[in-house]
Specification:
The chain has 162 residues and is of the alpha/beta class. It has a single domain, classed as 3-Layer(aba) Sandwich (Rossmann fold). Helix content is 26%, strand content 33%. It has 4 helices and 10 strands; from the N terminus they run βββαβαβαβαββββ. The strands form 3 sheets. It has a 6-stranded mixed β-sheet, with helices on both faces. A two-stranded antiparallel sheet has the order 2-3. It has a two-stranded antiparallel ribbon with strand order 9-10.
Length: 162
């Protein structure tokens, strides 16, 4: 892998808690800090394009994500994304030729103790280096085909479509 291109769109992974508002808001992308702290042995470039909860992403936002990825020279692309509409975005990205694209996120903000963010990022980094060109989702310790997975909101996890 020459360089990993990371496109950030917001989602829970980047959420921060504001005490004065008793509310979560999407903050700065966390993935660059996480990868630097972990001392990864590859180059990466973070392209922050959106800071939205994935429930608020529009068709235009998804086209922006697609166009941004298609315009990058890198063959390896990791997308941080909110989990609620990750599958929908992954389906829009299908068909971008010559790239391995892995979407990941977190069910708890990266800044929170016990967050799944680092684990999911690690899974996604391994996947993007090993998989054939195509679009994948890395969540809950598995690599998913976007056509065969859904988020079970009540159980707060990804699971196969039966």
């Amino acid at each position: 892998m020459d360089e990993l291109c990371i496109v950030t769109t917001g989602g829970t992974i980047d959420k921060i808690y504001f005490d004065d508002k008793s509310d979560f808001q999407v903050g700065e992308p966390q993935i660059g800090r996480i990868l630097q702290e972990l001392g990864v042995a590859f180059r990466f470039n973070v392209i922050p394009i959106l800071r939205k909860d994935s429930l608020h992403l529009t068709d235009d936002d998804r086209e922006l994500i697609r166009d941004t990825i298609a315009a990058q020279a890198s063959r390896h692309v990791l997308v941080t994304h909110g989990s609620d509409s990750m599958v929908a975005t992954a389906k829009v990205l299908a068909g971008i030729a010559g790239k391995t694209i892995v979407l990941t996120g977190a069910l708890n903000p990266a800044r929170f103790r016990g967050s799944d963010a680092e684990f999911n990022i690690g899974t996604a980094v391994g996947a993007v280096q090993c998989l054939a060109a195509g679009v994948y989702i890395a969540m809950n310790g598995r690599i998913w085909d976007p056509e065969k997975v859904r988020k079970n909101v009540s159980a707060n996890r990804f699971e196969p479509i039966s």
